[in-house]
Design a protein that fits this description.
11% strand; Pyrimidine Nucleoside Phosphorylase, Chain A, domain 2; Anthranilate_Pribosyl_Tfrase; anthranilate phosphoribosyltransferase activity; seven-stranded mixed β-sheet; 7 strands; alpha/beta; 351 residues; globular
Amino acid sequence: MAVINEIMTMPRALNTLIGGNSLTREEARGVMEIIMSGEATGAQIGSVITALRIKGETKDEITGFAEAMRAYSNHVHTERNGLMDTCGTGGSGIHKFNISTASAIIAAAAGVRVAKHGNRAMSGKSGSADTLEALGVNITLTPEQAARSLDEIGICFMFAQLYHPSLKHAAAPRKEIGIRTIFNMLGPLTNPAGADRQLLGIYDRNKTETIASVLGELGLKRAMVVSSHDGLDEISISSLTQVSELQGGIVRTYTITPEELGLTTRSLSEVIGGDAAENARIIRSIFHGEDYGAYRDIVLANAGACIFVGGAADTLQDGVETARAIIDSGKAANKLRQLIETTGELTHVSR
């Protein structure tokens, strides 16, 4: 557990921010330690995160907050090299189905070790936890059980509510102010297993480079932070997607089109999902070869990126073709079956 910063106080932080100045990385970490420890009042939390939003969060501020949140989380102890996460920010306001969840399963079937981090729906109709539960996956694994799932079948799911209990102190202020804040960016930056590779979708295209730089500061080896021109926190098949790619400590930003990935441009309306049951149905239909339309194509784009970042393909295009082969061979459906069976068995054995 991190030691509470004895110098930084919430009033001092607020005075700094409302003066238009930024917190250093250490100061930001101290603020988050105060929040995580339960020492800050609701009014202080709401004021500080609102002031940060108005000023605009810097790389150092986001990194400091993330470091403190990581220190206070429950951890999954496993081999971290080559470990992949597909957790994104959400918050796009577009109710598409759970693309990153499907992509994580396909990537695992391609041999990428996947420690998927996620939560229930915050702004959409169904979060990754909701949809996995509807698919039959037990989402309430302990850190020890999650580590066993990862070791046995190459994939685990870590339900954010169980791994970040100290976030309860910020829950009420966040709900009361009702705006996007730095907390919307922190979930994807705090993988409990310490994943060193990530495909991270973000709702704000102006922050892809900042978040990619933060991932580098947090020790990730490879990552792609993506945000599409049509508002998705995913790689889109309806528009250009902005990518900030982290590799070797360097961030490179560029755009990609569906055609560059060997896919056809489709209407955004074709990837809209529904509630957890409907999104689970969509994922099953893709995995079982019943869907060859836009749902499948957008999953191919994002799963291909996961496979590329995870090191199982040399290019994005190769990643897409690998994802296609994984689905067509039945390996994706089989990996989902393994995940359902293993998470159920682990929970049963533990009891």
